[in-house]
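Treating backbone geometry as a discrete language has practical consequences that deserve illustration. No coordinates are needed to read the tokens, only the vocabulary itself. For completeness, the protein is quoted in full, as a sequence line and a line of structure tokens:
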Amino acid sequence: MSRLLFAVLSICVVFSMAIVIAADEGSYIGFAKCKGCHKSSKVGNQTAAWEKGPHAGTYTQLASDESKEIAKKAGVEGDPQKSEKCLKCHITAYGVADERKADTLTMEEGISCEACHGAGSKYKTLHIKKKDAAKEAGFIVKPTEESCKKCHNPESPTYKEFKYEEKLKKIAHPKPAK
């Protein structure tokens, strides 16, 4: 009887740990929740830098005639805005379970903050309450060359050699020094 009880308790513990780990991944909250704090000059107006950059609107870009032609040549049947081949690199959180996506995350925003910096719910409250606490806690993901190459790679039908340092300068949105 004690072995059975131990086995049941062990299963419960493992299951509980799995729930905690899954919950720790955070939820994607969308650009609308990030831009409120990141549009001031005090933080370098990171919102404007993103809006002017190449990642904003990558989903709507798929609706263009040029994108449809590129998709067709790449073997995409139908609408590129509905194709896994395209969406995995043109929207934030593609393939993430719906339970981890807030209603405020939209496909129309394209590749937004959380695609590079991680799920916003993990640090939004902490970030607001205590300056830089989220960064110190390690919640904010810092993009790397490897993370960028998940999309910027030869699998893309428009791929050109990816020069990380050069591309990083084009999307830079640093916080000003004090």
User: Anything to note?
Assistant: DSSP finds eleven helices and no strands in the chain.
